[in-house]
Amino acid sequence: MTNKKELLAIADSCVKCGICSPHCPTYTHTQNENESPRGRIALIQAWAGGNLNVTGNLLEHIDNCLLCRACEKSCPAVVPYAKLIDDFRAEMHSEISSPLSVKMVKNFAENKRIQGWTKSLLTLYQQKNLQKTARFLHLPQILGLGKLERLIPNFQESQTLKNYYPAKNDVKGDVGLFIGCMGELFDFETVNAAITVLTHSGFNVHLPESQACCGALALHEGDAKTAKNLAAQNQAAFTNENLQAIITIASGCGSTLKDYALKVVDISYFLSQFEFDLKPLATNIRVHSPCTLKNVLKTDKSVLTLLKQIPEANISVLPDTTQCCGAAGTYSLRHDNMAQTLLNELLETALEKPADYLVSSNIGCALHIAAGLRERGENLQVVHPIVLIAQQLK
After folding, report:
1. What is the pLDDT of residue 111?
2. Most CB within 10 Å of its CB: which of 95, 235, 379, 383?
3. Strand partners for 203
4. Structural domains in the chain?
5. pLDDT digit string (tens) for 359-372?
């Protein structure tokens, strides 16, 4: 664990120039210097230097950060802001309490047995019209789980995944597919599409059964011990030296995996180097770039490159000025006012042009945005870009 001296050294690397401030969603909406990147760094700096005690206000200002890392992308001094926030939260882990919904998500992410139980319960909840009744009676809100329940997508048929899928065409090599803790249950459509396109492209696909959550939720909650254990588990799961790449289908997972695993690459970036023979799709597609894809992995342009291969598709990307959608892991469960403000802004921008699909490369963002669209009564479908590629394969 990082000590105060190390935290102070990181904080001291920030010269407080303020170039990052206009890029920070919380500062943009509050105009509160404590809610800016340099403000948060100054607070941690004062605490680590012994000039500020731990108070509720201090913890609140740090907890309000989305960790969208737009500040890092704009920082001329390349200050490792995310590491500073994560390490501070780790130091304060015992001081921070989490709402029930956050604890439930974290337990689900870290425990495969709970994932199995959840799958059975959700199948029953959705197929027997219990979800419709519960929402009509506002039971999730009464139980304090409204923020979490709203994120549950429409029921998707799934099947038991295999550990290996052979290439369907001339073999180009072997890749590992990281599906994380949420993909199989909440976005099997994307998992299946990834396997379809990768095997079609000539790759043998390996899905190690021992892979676990990437650790992002634990890391950003300050649970450094759990995050370290999950990292070790994934490193062991993907030790196959013959793998050309470890493919991720969620940029949030990819941005965390790349810090401890080799050969990690987002699926759109990996596949953008190949040409596909695709069926025409006369439709309007809006492209959302998750913060982790554009600010951390920095491969957001590859999504457009890939989608442009679909004949007759009219593709438009949300403006570069579009800020974080507000999902940010479990952020929307902790800070629903700010999360909803950011979501509303994004949806207003997304709906400025007619569209049939909105593509997003991160499951957390996709669930959050889809929930917002449902609440507005909009029929815009939120899908992963690889779903459209798989759908149009000849």
Report:
1. 87
2. 383
3. 173
4. 4-95 (1.10.1060.10), 100-149 (no CATH), 164-271 (3.40.50), 284-392 (3.40.50)
5. 999 999 999 999 99
